[in-house]
Design brief:
Length: 291
């Protein structure tokens, strides 16, 4: 039993020291015992007490730091949520304003999925044929044109965006009234091209591009984008015009489906401020991307 109790030398040494100290105190008088106890308390145990105090303070600081970090993370989460709610409220207010301008022609829908295939991009919305959303309905936001409904299920629909080769749009340059067809070219350098523009036509970098209403799918007067590059084709007969979309397709969350009540001009869009194009850049090849 004793062999198991004192198997380790440290245990044996501690036991021996304790016994020696106890016997020594027993042999001393009352005054000597008090002095010995004072010596042990203030000389031998003081460093131990100091170390214990430092460790205790360090542990307390550690847990306080962890508590503050947790609180800071919670505050950051709440701040991010409030920022997200403000952005969502701003988007919804713009959608509401546009819907109120066209109360019988627009229905709101939420984007539930995005996809990308070899021909370009598309989105899925949470409104379908039971909500009156049918193929070839135009899809817009307050910023501009998104694309058209390709197919509709009872409770959802697939929308081809402008960034899809099969979503060609008849458009018109707002300043010079030049007509053309806007189509996405998906290749090594994907671009949004304004096609069938003669080299003699007046198109400049910075020109606003709107839907023309020709073809009957897209209503007239919806913003599509801004001319970002103008050049001359190799044959010298046509212009090569690239357009930057008005909409950021990467951040789409809510859209409006155009459901015309009858013939006539398309939905009344919010006003947009555009800077006048540089008169010296009619045939410039300024760098620009269709994205």
């Amino acid at each position: 039993m004793f062999r198991l109790l004192f198997a380790r030398r440290a245990d044996w040494a501690a036991f021996t020291i304790a016994c020696v100290l106890s016997l020594s105190l027993m042999t001393l008088g009352r005054g000597q015992q008090a002095r010995a106890i004072w010596f042990v308390q203030h000389t031998l145990l003081a460093p131990v007490n100091a170390i214990v105090g430092w460790v205790d303070a360090g542990v307390g600081l550690y847990w306080e730091d962890q508590k503050l970090r947790k609180h800071l993370a919670q505050v950051q989460i709440e701040a991010d949520a409030m920022r997200s709610e403000r952005l969502e409220n701003a988007r919804l207010r713009r959608l509401l304003a546009l819907s109120q301008e066209n109360p019988n022609e627009l229905t709101a829908a939420r984007v539930t999925a995005r996809s990308l295939d070899r021909l370009g991009g598309s989105i899925t919305i949470d409104k379908g044929s039971k909500d009156g959303v049918l193929p070839n309905r135009a899809v817009i936001t307050p910023e501009g044109l998104i694309g058209r409904v390709e197919q509709a299920e009872p409770h959802e629909a697939r929308v081809l965006t402008l960034l899809h080769h099969d979503c060609a749009v008849a458009v018109r340059v707002g300043r010079s009234r030049v007509d053309g067809v806007l189509q996405w070219e998906f290749g090594e350098r994907p671009i949004l091209n304004l096609l069938y523009v003669s080299s003699q036509e007046d198109v400049k970098v910075g020109d606003l591009v709107l839907t023309s209403g020709l073809g009957g799918i897209f209503p007239e007067g919806v913003r599509v984008g801004v001319v970002s590059r103008v050049g001359i084709a190799e044959n010298g007969l046509m212009k090569e015009v690239q357009v930057k979309p008005a909409v950021d397709f990467r951040s789409l969350e809510e859209v409006l489906v155009y459901m015309p009540a009858g013939a006539g001009r398309g939905p009344r869009m919010p006003a947009v401020e555009t800077s006048a194009p540089d008169s010296s850049g009619s045939d410039s090849t300024a760098a620009g991307s269709a994205r």
